[in-house]
Amino acid sequence: MALDFTHDASASSWVASAQQADCDFTIQNLPIGIFDTPTEGRCRGGIAIGDQILDLARLASSDALNGAALVACNVAALSSLNEFMSLGPMPWRALRHEVFKLLHSDASESTRSRVKACLVPMSEARVKMPVDLRNYTDFFTSLYHAENCGRLVRPDQPLTPNFKWMPIAYHGRASSVVISGTPFHRPVGQSRSAGSSHPTFGPCKRLDFELELGFFVGPATQLGQNIPPSKAREHIFGMCLMNDWSARDHQFWEMDPLGPFLGKNFCTTISPWIVTIDALEPYRTASPRQASEPQPLAYLYDEGDQSEGSLDIQLEVAIQTLSHVAQKLSGDAVTRTSFRHQYWTIAQMLAHHTIGGCNMDSGDLLGTGTISGPTQQEAGSLVELTTGGTTQLSLPSTGEQRAFLEDGDTVVLRGWCQKEGLARIGFGECRGKVLPARH
Ligand code: CA
User: Fold this and answer.
1) Is 250 one of the catalytic residues?
2) Backbone phi, then psi, for 322, in 5-degree steps?
3) Residue 308 C-alpha to ligand 1 middle, in angstroms?
4) Structural domain of 280
5) pLDDT tens-digit profile of 90-101?
6) Which residue among the candidates 145, 235, 341, 353 is catalytic per the annotation?
7) Per-residue confidence at 439, pLDDT binned at 50, 70, 90?
8) Residue 1 has pLDDT above 80, yes or no
């Protein structure tokens, strides 16, 4: 896809908060989500702009849109985005183009006043799950994460022989995926400490976050149909931040010989505003795979995907403890990296997922797997940052230390794209708080 007028870095919005430096929800972004308000309990679609939400239900019943954009807006205004995601790139783009014009500084006074009546302050809104989630898959596609974790259990051969040949994944649990801001209880389960002959049961002692991005499937496919990497863009609606909370002690005991189960299925948190694949377009970049490494098998290879299938999305994780909250501090960053280091692209993930004929539903969520950069300071989980819990991370603003998460800790993921000559776009926050175990 070529860039168009909606990517123009010089474009500005008459919504003043969208023009502030470091604003995530600029006019070039226009991420979409589901929300309601305490006074109007009906869930409906909205587009984030500055500190406001453009209420798509109100917009659809105003006379600000017509034609294909109005049709698309009516679908996007429903209580979940599955149907809008099923429509495909042309309707998605029709809505994006017209909303961009309505929010642009060049919009007439009469347009502004009509659109102003459709704005809801974010401070008055409650964000909801963007889709009726039926399927969730989580990948394992960061070379550095795979090496860091592999080293903890197999120091001689950290990387499994399949890693550079396929984007590895497991089928996750859709029912426990929650929206940002939802707290969860520390899980209980079995674990076995090193040198012990039998496991013990109790609250997780090694609770961790995983810094990930998620992406949502657009148009569905039939059983038996595959999506080659060259067609992936038409089947990927957009992306969100994702925290795949992990109980490391439970996970490492249960994973032999099958995949993650209770160590992962107690909670996964996603951010509410889905940044569309169109908005991310200017931030495409080359795959980091070197010529000396195994080249992808034909079903995973597309020249365009290799040259521009990675995305330069900057990411940060902060921990806010109860001491931070008591002192009105926002927390301390514990890691920063970029998604551009990821070994496999999202197009390759979708191509691999479907190559055997697995059908995809509109609104299915696929996680990228933990995103870790080349150095240990850029790792996307505590188990990597503290080398399996053998060291502690310092939280400078309170003087506390952490090897793993404690009750009351809040983990905040942030993501944004920013580069000279391009407009900043961002994901906002993905936030979750650990409550004490129930048992
Ligand atoms: Ca994960």
Assistant:
1) no
2) -65, -30
3) 24
4) 136-435
5) 999 999 999 999
6) 145
7) confident
8) no
